[in-house]
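This part of the workshop introduces the protein records we will be handling. A record pairs a protein's sequence with a compact description of its fold. Backbone structure tokens are a discrete shorthand for how the chain folds in space. The question running through the whole workshop is how a given chain folds. The record below serves as our worked example for the rest of this section.
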Amino acid sequence: MTEMPPKLAEIVEDFASAPREVVLEMLLEFSDAVPPLPAALAGHDGMEQVPECQTQFFLKAEVQPDATVQTWFDCPPEAPTTRAFAGILAEGLAGSSATEILAVPDDLYARMGLAQAISPLRIRGGTAILGRLKRQIAEQIA
């Protein structure tokens, strides 16, 4: 089995080893790390909504010719926890191959220790985001 992309593994370790009160601050920092959508995706054209999230969340994954994956996420700033999931994935998966992303464990957020800091409903939303991202990638390489 392929290991987690190195940057994502580093983020997971940082969260897993941080005290609960610091975890919330770290999540807020990642909520600011979501890159803006390109004009072509304005209005969420071609993006998939993740209905498991309590707030409107859209994503798109595109496998590039070199097998790396480009990701786009959109979530309102008023939903910092959900935006943090996007920021973690955007930063942690940047430059990763389709194979590396498909190997990311489905229990990513549990491994980060987030269950002690945020609600199970939010964890479920984050897990759905990862699941939909991986499904889009798997469909493109099939």
About this structure: The chain has one domain: 6-33+47-141. Helices lie at 6-17, 20-31, 80-93, 98-102, 108-111, 120-141. The mean pLDDT is 93. DSSP finds six helices and three strands in the chain.
